């Protein structure tokens, strides 16, 4: 029997963070990094992973100083008004990310399994499933992904191993780009995108009430950073070695295209790309569920001084339905207006990511720790 104490283990934290980061990053980063030319994208992944590790250390330092939760910690330095304003900003960032991830998954499903005219229905079903999972609470979500982890990871590892024989190592070079000198603008742009892919680490500071041992939780989160960084680097090298930088940069979802190219001995599975969409469904669904859950928890804490899981009945579900509806409207808007999505992405990179970094960093200097 499972316990029901609203606590999650360090292993569950690690697996949730792996899913939250890997899904969207593995779909989009390879083609974006390939635009820099050959192997320079690998260094962006490694640098982004290192910066993510430093960011996690800063967040863990905040966690170790919290008297009860992140809100109480922020109030000791920023005051009540600014702390609640920061929470509202965190909630908005979370819900917009939820809308973007749901839109991405709906388009992926419509492009591989359904018709493009079914986007609205696909988006609705995805967000209803996310609503169901998020409303069940942190502990229930953690159990599900603890059970699904190896079911999803092992097939992906096997398929990538089958792809290795098609890799042409020569296409990795030159490792510093196509010019004699490193293109620093491309390198730093790719590094920033890679670091932004690790932004679900931000939710670590909101996990404090749900963990029993902060030290073990910190090690688990660090393990997730290392595992994601290694997986993204390996995936990028495989895709680059098969497609080459020119073709890879033109692919929308290169890893899905790669799955369609894999030949399984016996040829007993047709349209393997469609089958593997299921794997990315669960990874993206994890990110959608995480961002919806934290969007509700954070907004509720900012406006009512209570977490979403701290009350039962109609009030709790109203918050989940209301913010899920907001996410649906935003996701559908992104689909209808690509320019709006581009603008939202730019705001995310130039405002959202710096906000998520600056607040905990400054808080280490101005907020009073426990004891």
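-> sequence recovered:
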């Amino acid at each position: 029997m499972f316990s029901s104490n609203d606590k999650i283990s360090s292993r569950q934290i690690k697996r949730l963070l792996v899913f939250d980061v890997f899904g969207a990053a593995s779909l989009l980063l390879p083609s974006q990094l390939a635009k820099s030319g050959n192997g320079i994208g690998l260094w962006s992944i490694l640098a982004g992973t290192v910066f993510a590790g430093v960011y996690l250390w800063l967040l863990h330092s905040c966690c170790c100083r919290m008297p009860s939760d992140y809100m109480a910690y922020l109030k000791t330095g920023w005051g009540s008004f600014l702390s609640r304003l920061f929470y509202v900003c965190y909630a908005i960032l979370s819900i917009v990310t939820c809308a973007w991830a749901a839109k991405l998954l709906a388009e992926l499903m419509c492009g591989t399994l359904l018709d493009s005219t079914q986007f609205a229905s696909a988006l609705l079903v995805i967000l209803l499933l996310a609503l169901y999972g998020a409303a069940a609470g942190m502990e229930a979500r953690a159990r599900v992904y603890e059970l699904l982890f190896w079911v999803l990871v092992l097939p992906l590892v096997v398929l990538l191993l089958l792809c290795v024989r098609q890799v042409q190592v020569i296409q990795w070079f030159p490792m510093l780009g196509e010019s004699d000198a490193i293109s620093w603008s491309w390198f730093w742009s790719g590094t920033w995108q890679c670091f932004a892919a690790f932004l679900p680490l931000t939710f670590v500071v909101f996990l404090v009430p749900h963990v029993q041992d902060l030290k073990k939780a910190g090690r688990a989160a660090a393990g997730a950073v290392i595992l994601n960084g290694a997986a993204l680097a390996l995936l990028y090298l495989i895709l680059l070695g098969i497609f080459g930088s020119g073709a890879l940069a033109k692919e929308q979802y290169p890893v899905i295209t790669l799955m369609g190219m894999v030949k399984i001995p016996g040829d007993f599975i047709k349209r393997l790309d469609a089958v593997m969409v299921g794997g990315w469904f669960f990874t993206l669904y994890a990110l959608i569920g995480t961002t919806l859950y934290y969007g509700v928890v954070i907004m509720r804490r900012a406006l009512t001084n209570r977490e979403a899981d701290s009350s039962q009945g109609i009030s709790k579900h109203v918050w989940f339905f209301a913010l899920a509806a907001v996410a649906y409207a935003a996701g559908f808007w992104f689909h209808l207006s690509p320019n709006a999505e581009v603008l939202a992405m730019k705001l995310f990179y130039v405002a959202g990511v710096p906000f998520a970094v600056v607040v905990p960093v400054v808080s280490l200097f101005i907020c009073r720790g426990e004891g």
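The chain has one domain: 10-363.
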